[in-house]
Amino acid sequence: MNLLLFIGFFFLCLSLNAQPPGISYTYEYPYKDGIPIKRHQERRLTLRNTHGNRSLIVSLSADTRNRQNDVDHPYRQNSNFLYLTGMPYAKSALIIAPGGIEHEGKVSHEFFFLQPRNTEKEAWEGAMMGLEEAKMLMIDRILPYTELRSFLIKHLNGIDTVFFTGLPTANVPIPLAEKPLSVEKALKDDLQSTFPELYVKTTMPSLNAMREIKDSDELRLMKKAIEISIEGHTLAMKECYPGITEYELEALMEFAFKKGGAEDIGYSSIMGSGYNACILHYTFNRKATLHGDLVLADCGAEFQNYTADITRTFPVNGTFTQDQKTLYDFVLEAADSAIAEAKVGNAFRAPHNAAKRVLLKKLMGLGIIEKEEELKWYFMHGTSHYLGLDVHDPGTMGTLKDGSIITVEPGIYIPPGSPCDKRWWNIGIRIEDDILITQDGPVNLSATLPRTTNAIENLMKAKNK
What tens digit of pLDDT does each residue of 179-216 get? Predict the structure, then answer.
């Protein structure tokens, strides 16, 4: 027993001193081809200039999400925080002071908080940005993350409004409780217990408006994400055959994403075949395909934090049936009509209204529906959303603006048991493209990926050998 205790103590000592003295891991910033650091600085200045001197702007990094036990999900930074700083790591924060704050004898407008480097931790997780490396972010003052709360409390005197660019976690579920804990309420209660007159706001419409319009660097990254996504969709269509599983198609798609340089997927891949194509956000992806099935593939690569969002629907056996082709052509006409309405100055819902008009007329013509209100049975979602750092990017939802990117994605979904002729059952079709709004009209950034039934069939005939 004494020997066992000695061995245990020996290995414990080893674990406590796992790194030789003087060890240093080389840090490399991961977004060298991403948004230039100068651009983040310009965004912070723009945001600062739109707020009064008695306000503070606080932006927080995303929380680490636990997968199970001691394993976490891969980390993804909060998009607003990333937009303003370019910082990829957790436990960091930004404070912008439009009126300036005197701290340790110096007045500054920007303060950045992060963890110092830790070689013990880096041995497990890799080199991380520390206080010295953070200087590359071009933020006025760099401070340890442990000082964030005391700094904020110290400098809230004289401040009337604190704007948070969002909360990393909005609600925390409590076991057996009917309602989750509201983080926003807890935050407000905490700050207002000391500063009762303080106004705390956790949304920023001005930042949403900034993110709606993409600059030249954002467009460059989004075009690359779309290009990579097109390669994935092309490979999945070429390699498809009756009997292949949804997860094999998903694997082919995401292999092409990684091979093309994407760091991640922009959202969980949707690869629904047969009746699963009628489920809008189906992500289980375990079914084997059958001869005669359609596959609805809604997948997008994330490159340097910017995501594509593309959907194509294709026949497993390479040939559309006549009924499938009929409905597909309806959706294509709806998509083309919607894209034509994606013009500067048009209402955000103009593309959606155009798509609805087409699908209403076509489905009534076939007798699939009899009344206008029945359209929502088979087309129950919006046609467009903004696209950027998030697959559902923020925006103003006002008139369409030069430099914004939206999706156009009408669809028809007829699950089994629907009150129409059974010949239409199990047909789910969506066509989704990423549209850049310009003064010269809409630009379909994903147009090179086949969209017509003939083009899809021809692509699928060109099987990879």
Answer: 999 999 999 999 999 999 999 999 999 999 999 999 99
Which tokens go with 58? 């606080």
Q: Among the three residues 208, 229, 254, which one is the final residue of a domain in this structure?
A: 208
Both 170 and 260 in a single domain? Answer: no
Q: Name the token pair of 247.
A: 């997860």
Residue type, 401: K
Decide which of 148, 181, 208 is a domain's last residue: 208
203 with 236, same domain? no
Catalytic residues: 70, 281, 298, 309, 381, 385, 392, 409, 413, 430, 432
411 and 380 within one domain: yes
**What pLDDT digit, counting tens, does each position of 96-134 carry?**
999 999 999 999 999 999 999 999 999 999 999 999 999
Q: pLDDT tens digits, residue range 160-169?
A: 999 999 999 9
Helix H or strand E encompassing 433: strand 433-436
Give the 3-state DSSP-derived string for 239-267, with helices as H, strands as E and coil as C: HCCCCCEHHHHHHHHHHHHHHCCCCEECC
**Residues 235, 127 share a domain:** no
